[in-house]
Known about the structure:
The chain is α+β, with helices and mostly antiparallel strands and 177 residues long. It has four helices and nine strands, in the order H-H-H-E-E-E-E-E-E-E-E-E-H.
Amino acid sequence: MFRHSSVRLLRLHTLKLSNPIYKTAQLHTSTFRMSNNNTNEPYPVSKSELEWRVQLSPEQYRVLRQKGTERPGSGEYNHFSGTGVYNCAACDTPLYKSDAKFDSGCGWPAFYEAIPGAIRIFEDKSGGMVRTEMVCNNCGGHLGHVFKGEGFKTPTDERHCVNSVSLKFVGNEDKKL
Ligand SMILES: [Zn+2]
């Protein structure tokens, strides 16, 4: 009798060592972590943890640098509907346009797409589940998770569930001189 219950496929995520810059610049550092991110490129903005602690508020540091999650329903952008752009709270890179924001009812700001090239995704197996983590492609700051195929009536059927504390809204009015 074939038993299914304990059969689980484990994938060994091997390190891509073909990029010589990555090999010399990143492999020997203590901050290196093995993961199956979709690129091995270093982040353009790289700061020490001390520098991030000085720059960010304790809650921003907990979420952006330690992959924390703000309490559902607590974020300032959860029900916010201003017109403009949401930048990374750590490095000021534009991440999401307000046009892509929708009310998912999940307790966090939700977007159906990011600005092209703005985010980087990882497979996240923490917490006993497999999710897709999103980080800022410029500084590596943790943003939240992306979920697909949930049936939301949006152009992509994706829900980018983002912590408000990882974002900084810049309204169109604010950008006028
Ligand atoms: Zn950033």
